[in-house]
Amino acid sequence: MTASIALWTSILLNGVAQVLLKKGVGHSTESGACTGWWLSLLTNVWVWAWGLSFVAATGLWLLALSRLDISYAFPLLSTSFILVALLSRLLLGELISWKRWVAILVICLGVVLIAAK
In sequence order, what are the residues at sequence separation of 6 or more whose Cβ sits closer than 8 angstroms to the Cβ of residue 82? Predict the structure, then answer.
């Protein structure tokens, strides 16, 4: 696996993991900071899916960092903002204002400048 494939797969998995975690926390059987809420997270399939995605993303991130400059790789993580925004809209029904989309676009323009080397 090339460093670039590892990097982009890590970014994709990281974005998916964030949405899985939100879904898991939102579907827990308890609410608040009580012990029952924390324990309900341990049996939540969405939280487990988040954990597996996060571990895989971290492993791929380590692989990518072993071969790429961190000053190049780290800013590219912000491309997951687009993925998280889209998935949160599609899967969680969240509303995203035009101001948020503009902010995400500005961040991504910076990423394009960095990725162009």
Answer: 104, 108
Residue 108 contacts residue 76 (beta carbons within 8 Å) = no
Tens of pLDDT, residue by residue, the chain (117 residues)? 899 999 999 999 999 999 999 998 886 555 556 777 778 888 889 999 999 999 999 999 999 999 999 988 888 888 888 899 999 999 999 999 999 999 988 988 887 787 776
Tell me how crowded residue 54 is: count the other CB atoms within 10 A of its CB. 17
Q: What tokens does 26 get?
A: 């939102």
Residue 10 neighbours by CB under 8 Å, 6+ apart: 57, 58, 60, 61, 64
Give the CA distances from residue 70 to residues 67, 74, 114, in Å, rounded to whole numbers and listed in that order.
Answer: 9, 6, 12
Query: What Rg value do the Cα atoms of the chain yield, rounded?
Result: 16
